[in-house]
Amino acid sequence: MSKKFTFLFVMLVISSMVLAACQPEVITETVEVPVEVEVEKEVEVIKEVEVEVPTKTLVFSSRLFSPPREQEFFINEIIKPFEEEHGVIVNFQIIDDQTLLDRAEVQQTTDHITTDIVVAHNSRMPEWIEAGWVEDLTDVVAGWDDRHFSEAFVTDTNKDGAQYFLPVGADVYLLLANNKALPYLPDGVELDTITWEQYAAWAVAVAEAEGEGKVCITGIPMKSWIYMFGGTALSYGAGFPDASSAGAMDAWKVWETIGKAQGFVPTVMNIDSCVDPMMREESWLTVFHNARAGQVYASNETQFTLAPAPTGPVGTGSIAGVSGYAVMKGSANYDLAIEFLEYLTRPDVQVKLAKGTGGFIPPVQEAIDYLGDEAIDEVINKAVLVLENGVVSGVPGGNYQDWGAVKACFDDVFEDTILTGADVTQERLDAAQTCVDDLLN
């Protein structure tokens, strides 16, 4: 190693020792220092939340108001005001009588009641009552001192002194004529007092003058012919449904006269309602359901003339029908159902409903005070006259195994005898009566 390098190394060592001696002493000390720390904490906050309460729904199943025009009126003008006032929903369903009964049986036997109110025809009311599927409304009705129901339908709506149905939409039969037929009216005949023989002579005169028949009846099987004929038969002292008595024979002879003159409209066997043929002026004469007559008449009262049904030796005969409201046994909305029925049977609502659906008879006596002088009011007034002063019968459908089959017994006589222009014989009528009697329960 060179002397120079040795010297430098020695000097570096000495310098390091001097520098180390000059460094300050490092003293380590632990000191407690307070520190603020933010800690998250759960805080309960109460907040108001709006909870939507389900709207009550009343299930209302009806055999009445089945035509679309009537349904629209009933929903918009009758149901909606009630819904808005009570904050509820009325589920309105159109269901035929048999389906209503079948559905009720399922609900009652499974104890799963989903229907609240039913509307049934008077011919089916006994089945509801005997089965025990509708509530006794006697005490409810007793609390309403501003309305009284027509006595004409008590035997159908009541049983053993208790009331189960509240009548609505009663009907009878009225004569409706297109004014084009008036020139052929027999001399001296007034429509308000026209007899069945005069009606037949009028129909014959129209057919001969016009070259084709203008009388409308429902030729499609199991429609209204049984009621059209039934009114004639009652006018001659027959019962209902009576096909072969002396009074029934006299009634058949009236229709035989029209048939022999080919007095029915050519399309008669395709007609299930006389409304359209009358409005299209294919038909000029008919005696049919007052609400349907009212529908046609109110459409153009200057074109038609309305009168009570023709008379016979014992008076003005007519089949009188009615439907009725009832509360289903076990309804979950019983109180609301009663409120709705109280509303529906108010005299003013009864008239509003009757006028808006073609001219049904409101079977609440006080309702007549609300009638005015419009065309539809005339329909109702004439129907009331027939109901109160005529020879009327209800529809004893509950006495028979199949009311449609009973209708067919009368339809067959029309088709094979009256329409063909053949003579009505006692033998043919006895066969028809046997057809009816074989269907008794």
Provide structural commentary.
It is a single chain. With 441 residues, the chain is of the alpha/beta class. It folds into two domains: 57-171 and 321-378, Periplasmic binding protein-like II (D-Maltodextrin-Binding Protein, domain 2); 193-318 and 394-437, D-Maltodextrin-Binding Protein, domain 2 (3-Layer(aba) Sandwich), CATH 3.40.190. The chain has 16 helices and 13 strands. It has helices at residues 3-22, 68-86, 97-110, 125-131, 138-142, 154-157, 196-210, 225-235, 246-260, 275-279, 290-299, 334-344, 347-356, 375-389, 403-418, 426-437, and strands at 57-62, 89-94, 117-121, 158-159, 162-163, 166-171, 173-178, 285-289, 304-308, 311-312, 315-319, 321-327, 391-393. Strands 2-1-3-12-6 form a five-stranded mixed beta sheet. Strands 8-7-9 form a three-stranded antiparallel beta sheet. It has a three-stranded mixed beta sheet with strand order 10-11-13. Helix 15 packs antiparallel against helix 16. The longest helix is centred in the first third of the chain and has 20 residues, at 3-22. It is globular, with a radius of gyration of 42 Å. Residues 1-31 have low confidence and may be disordered.
List the helices and strands and how they pair.
Layout: H1 3-22, E1 57-62, H2 68-86, E2 89-94, H3 97-110, E3 117-121, H4 125-131, H5 138-142, H6 154-157, E4 158-159, E5 162-163, E6 166-171, E7 173-178, H7 196-210, H8 225-235, H9 246-260, H10 275-279, E8 285-289, H11 290-299, E9 304-308, E10 311-312, E11 315-319, E12 321-327, H12 334-344, H13 347-356, H14 375-389, E13 391-393, H15 403-418, H16 426-437
Parallel strand pairs: 1-2, 1-3, 11-13
Antiparallel strand pairs: 3-12, 4-5, 6-12, 7-8, 7-9, 10-11
Helix pairs in contact: 2-13, 7-9, 8-9, 11-14, 15-16
